[in-house]
């Protein structure tokens, strides 16, 4: 049926989620086919320019790096016929400064390029590259004269996925085990230059100061309190049958920074009570990712994941919720998230009693001047008199140093890149440190020579010096100790206090809706952890949380009013309603028939996951409407057919998850169903989002055997914008799973809900 109705759409659904472009999943990501056509036309000319660059620029630079590379020659440079493709572009205009334009490009490159080089009779080469990731492009500042944009800043939000096919002697890197290591090394190389917080900034206007564009002050800090989890899936088993308890731990990640929690042994309801802090450089853009694993001696088993939008945490300031885990059958995770703003206020620098950070130090490492060639060229400021007998070693000592910098605050040390063979190295990097006590802590700097691992100079800066400046900033040259008398290092130090601001009382909090699903990059797991690439929408009943909230709703007969006050004490998960209407009499007592739907509402909601194909129903049941068709309002609880005979009730929880861009329908259960035969009924629930009545878009619960009061607790999602959902009608039917040739009545009852009349953001739970 799917192929007959829409062959193209059915084929697209058969693709893995990570192969679908971003514009399929998100309505604010635009297709740019015109730009891809421009790239196809310009690619041969770009290849010619790159071939010339490799020969005239890159080859001389490689030869100058080392004596062993003097014979380096590119023998073949061909960039192939396949050019990079942009799967979608998202433009930000509301959440950013008015003097900039921010674009997110979903880049995919599956290239047939071929590059070969000879080094001392050895042939090395690459004969294919695959690369895809999200590249952010920031155009700022916008100017009133040509070229209208001052500079372009480029960086990847996360590590791009990379695969390389090697050729020649380097083909050894394709050996299993080695290929993962080689690709990850190159990924780390790219990350050190192109992944946040690292950026590439290209000035387009002369005399443009790009220092503040390359190293902007971070947006804020997210403090994550990893508290506990419950009802995690059992992963450990013995002899393949007997289930045991798991040993869960959590991996928390923002950008390239990742922390691992402690492991809780043999517990499916672990309690961690740990705190982690992350620097957030780009919002919107960066998200908090949490993955749970079961620690095993051989391979750690995946237990579920969570993706939380930091935009909502920034707006809510504090989020303390139970989040349902995705990509698993059960489990909830309790997190408390605090958004800490960076403020220039010394009064906020009081020490935290719990030992948490109170400030952040940003170090902009610029350059150094007149470094000594070796660590004993100068001793206490005077030229050393040590004689070297080995002439070969003496020549090595006379070279300019290849220097890097170690920066330390407290017990955290960070290392800069290495500048080769220069007495005046320029690093141009930024580093961030969490500060617990600005009055007592210091920044320790040590410049070392890579080849001899010896110190070329040190410096200590007390952070209390920053407090003397009203802006808590120092931008100057610092004299190096244990070095030459005219050796300096140039840095800019910025200290900012961490402050939790009061949330806006008028704003509706996102709460548990801060968790979201979307196309994620392939996540490389180190060591014995597994790799997974595409998100899966959780369609599994979260048993504990929903059941607890719904059990608190009192049972009633079909004619009684439903009192929802008792449910307020239960914790509210994502599938339940945060606030139920307590006074139903205030609402319109009954709804009219659903209004005519516009033609545009027939658009198929795009699902980001592959749907499983089920056995098709009979042709007659596809086109036929049941005789018992009713309208349900939020207050009209008594449902009757034409003969005033009640057919039973169904309990539903409906809300719109704005972060996921989806309508969430939770089918809780039915009661007092009317049997259609003497042998009993096997009820299940079928859901359509009208006017879309295609079989491929229908949702269906499991079948409950021989019961008139089935309990389902199953969740379904329709991925559609809120504007379109408000034009739609939910069509929900309770059906009897009967034998194919049976003459029994299939329909047990039906309900229609006009979504244009409901407050979907607030949601509702109703019999």
Describe the structure.
The chain is mostly beta strands. Among the domains are: 33-209; 220-343, Sandwich (Immunoglobulin-like), CATH 2.60.40.150; 359-377 and 400-494, Immunoglobulin-like, CATH 2.60.40.150; 649-766, Immunoglobulin-like. The strands form eight sheets. Strands 1, 2, 3, 4, 5, 6, 7 and 8 form an eight-stranded antiparallel β-sheet that branches. Strands 9, 14, 17, 18, 19, 24, 27 and 28 form an eight-stranded antiparallel β-sheet that branches. It has a five-stranded mixed β-sheet with strand order 29-36-35-32-33, with no helix packed on it. The longest helix is centred in the N-terminal third of the chain and has 33 residues, at 33-65. It is globular. It starts with a helix and ends with a strand. The model is unreliable at 378-393 and 518-643 (pLDDT under 50).
Topology:
Blueprint: H1 2-5, H2 7-13, H3 22-25, H4 33-65, E1 73-78, E2 85-92, E3 101-111, E4 114-119, E5 122-142, E6 149-156, E7 161-168, H5 178-194, E8 200-203, H6 211-214, E9 220-230, E10 237-238, E11 242-243, E12 248-254, E13 257-260, E14 271-280, E15 287-294, E16 301-309, H7 310-316, E17 318-324, E18 332-343, E19 359-369, E20 378-379, E21 382-383, H8 391-397, E22 403-409, E23 412-415, E24 426-435, E25 442-449, E26 455-462, E27 473-479, E28 488-499, H9 543-551, H10 619-623, E29 630-631, E30 649-657, E31 662-671, E32 683-690, E33 699-700, E34 711-719, H11 722-725, E35 729-736, E36 747-754, E37 764-766
Parallel strand pairs: 29-36
Antiparallel strand pairs: 1-4, 2-3, 3-5, 4-5, 5-6, 5-7, 6-8, 9-14, 9-18, 10-11, 12-13, 12-15, 15-16, 17-18, 18-28, 19-24, 19-28, 20-21, 22-23, 22-25, 25-26, 27-28, 30-31, 30-37, 31-34, 32-33, 32-35, 35-36
């Amino acid at each position: 049926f799917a192929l007959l109705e829409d062959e193209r759409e059915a084929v697209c659904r058969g693709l893995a989620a990570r192969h679908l472009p971003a514009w399929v999943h998100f309505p604010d990501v635009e297709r740019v086919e015109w730009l891809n056509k421009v790239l196809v036309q310009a690619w041969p000319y770009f290849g010619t320019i790159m071939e010339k660059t490799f020969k005239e620029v890159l080859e001389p630079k490689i030869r100058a790096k080392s004596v062993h590379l003097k014979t380096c020659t590119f023998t073949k440079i061909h960039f192939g016929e396949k050019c990079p493709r942009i799967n979608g572009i998202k433009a930000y205009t509301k959440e950013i400064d008015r003097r900039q334009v921010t674009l997110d490009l979903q880049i995919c490159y599956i290239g047939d390029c071929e590059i070969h080089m000879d080094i001392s009779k050895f042939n090395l080469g690459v004969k294919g590259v695959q690369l895809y990731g999200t590249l952010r492009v920031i155009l700022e500042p916008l100017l009133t004269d040509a070229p209208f944009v001052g500079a372009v800043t480029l960086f990847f939000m996360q590590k791009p996925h990379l695969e390389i096919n090697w050729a020649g002697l380097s083909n050894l890197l394709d050996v299993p085990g080695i290929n993962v290591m080689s690709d990850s090394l190159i990924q780390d190389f790219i990350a050190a230059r192109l992944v946040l917080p690292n950026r590439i900034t290209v000035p387009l206007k002369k005399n443009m100061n790009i220092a503040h564009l390359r190293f902007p002050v971070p947006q804020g800090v997210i403090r994550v309190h990893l508290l506990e989890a419950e009802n995690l899936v059992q992963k450990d088993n013995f002899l393949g049958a007997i289930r045991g308890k798991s040993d869960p731990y959590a991996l928390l990640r923002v950008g390239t920074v990742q922390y691992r929690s402690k492991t809780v042994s043999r517990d499916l309801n672990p309690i961690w009570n740990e705190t982690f802090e992350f620097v957030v450089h780009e919002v919107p853009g960066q998200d908090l990712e949490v993955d749970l694993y079961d620690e095993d001696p051989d391979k750690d088993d995946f237990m579920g994941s969570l993706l939380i939008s930091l935009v909502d945490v920034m707006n809510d300031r504090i989020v303390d919720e139970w989040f349902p885990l995705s990509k698993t059958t059960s489990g909830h995770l309790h997190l408390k998230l605090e958004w800490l703003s960076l403020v220039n206020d010394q009064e906020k620098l009081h020490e935290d009693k719990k030992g948490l950070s109170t400030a952040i130090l940003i170090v902009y490492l610029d350059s150094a001047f007149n470094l000594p060639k070796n660590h004993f060229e100068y001793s206490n400021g005077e030229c050393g008199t040590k004689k070297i007998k080995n002439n070969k070693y003496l020549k090595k000592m006379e070279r300019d140093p290849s220097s890097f910098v170690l920066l330390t605050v407290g017990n955290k040390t960070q290392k800069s890149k290495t500048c080769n063979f220069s007495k005046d190295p320029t690093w141009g990097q930024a580093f961030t440190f969490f500060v617990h006590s600005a009055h007592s802590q210091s920044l320790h700097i040590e410049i070392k020579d890579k080849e001899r691992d010896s110190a070329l100079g040190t410096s200590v800066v007390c952070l209390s010096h920053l407090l003397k400046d009203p802006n808590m900033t120092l931008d100057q040259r610092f004299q190096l100790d244990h070095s030459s008398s005219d050796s300096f290092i140039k840095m800019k130090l910025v200290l900012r206090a961490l402050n939790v601001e009061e949330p806006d009382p008028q704003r509706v909090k996102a709460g548990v809706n801060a968790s979201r699903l979307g196309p994620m990059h392939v996540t490389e797991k180190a060591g014995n952890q597994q790799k997974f690439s595409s998100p899966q929408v959780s369609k599994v009943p979260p048993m504990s949380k929903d059941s607890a909230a719904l059990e608190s709703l009192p049972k009633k007969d079909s004619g009684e009013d439903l009192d929802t006050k008792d449910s307020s004490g239960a914790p509210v998960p994502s599938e339940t309603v945060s606030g139920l209407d307590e006074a139903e009499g205030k609402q319109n007592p009954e709804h009219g028939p659903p209004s005519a739907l516009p033609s545009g509402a027939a658009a198929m909601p795009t699902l980001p996951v592959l749907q499983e194909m089920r056995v098709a129903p009979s042709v007659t049941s596809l086109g036929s409407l049941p005789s018992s068709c009713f309208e349900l309002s939020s207050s009209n609880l008594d449902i009757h057919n034409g003969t005033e005979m009640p057919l039973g009730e169904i309990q539903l929880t409906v809300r719109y998850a704005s972060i996921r861009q989806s309508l969430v329908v939770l089918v809780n259960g039915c009661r007092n169903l009317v049997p259609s035969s003497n042998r009993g009924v096997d009820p299940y629930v079928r859901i359509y989002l009208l006017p879309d009545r295609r079989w491929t878009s229908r949702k269906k619960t499991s079948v409950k055997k021989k019961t008139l009061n089935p309990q389902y607790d199953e969740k379904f999602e329709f991925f559609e914008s809120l504007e379109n959902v408000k034009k739609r009608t939910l069509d929900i039917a309770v059906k009897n799973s009967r034998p194919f040739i049976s003459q029994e009545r299939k329909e047990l009852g039906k309900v229609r809900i006009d979504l244009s009349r409901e407050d979907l953001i607030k949601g509702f739970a109703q019999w």
